[in-house]
What does this fold into?
Amino acid sequence: MDFETVMQELEALGKERQKKMYMSNGAREPVFGVATGAMKPLAKQIKLNQPLAEQLYATGNYDAMYFAGIIAEPLRMTEADFERWMDGAYFYMLSDYVVAVTLAEADIAQEVADRWIASDEELRRSAGWSCYCWLLGSRKDSEFSESKIADLLDLAERTIHDAPNRVKSAMNNFLYTVATSYVPLHEKAVATAEAVGPVELKKDTKSSFIHATENIRKFTEKGKLGFKRKYVRC
It folds into this structure.
């Protein structure tokens, strides 16, 4: 299936209500408004196709960019490729749920995520933390350095309250993911989440609060400690 056909198929799948939802979360035109579930039959036809993924991502169309992440071949992508994709990720649904997810299936995931966490850019930082969430929630514990993850927990505790909103959210998810999916540091992650306490997210004149401890407790009560997902991408 060629680029033009895929764009036509995506446009036909678009729904106005879905489009409004995406735009309320930060997406900008062009947007078709395709539900992620509606993309699955199309993805099954195409399977993986990195050249096509690159064409789609370059359009700036939110739905095409999201679909690019589904059909991308992360093992073929270089650090420069991921940096280029991040440059095009203009809001968190692209940075954290397309680029970070795609990166999580690459061999260079941790190196790239480490660099993004150390960045001064909000979306790169959130993508770095989010990538670790996807990694820890899918890969064996043995693939990670315990001391490195412990250092990231300490970093989150020190900086979360002063971080931009998207970074706060990603860090909060990191605390939750380490506590629930990375067994060696479960207790430390729980203690860190408790020390952090509620995290305030400000939007205009309104505030909301997130608290990793609450979600960790609910998950632990279900007896799913150490949970690993089979697939990162849908």
Strands lie at 199-203, 206-210. The longest helix spans residues 165-181. Residues 116 and 128 are 5 Å apart (CA to CA). The longest strand covers residues 199-203.
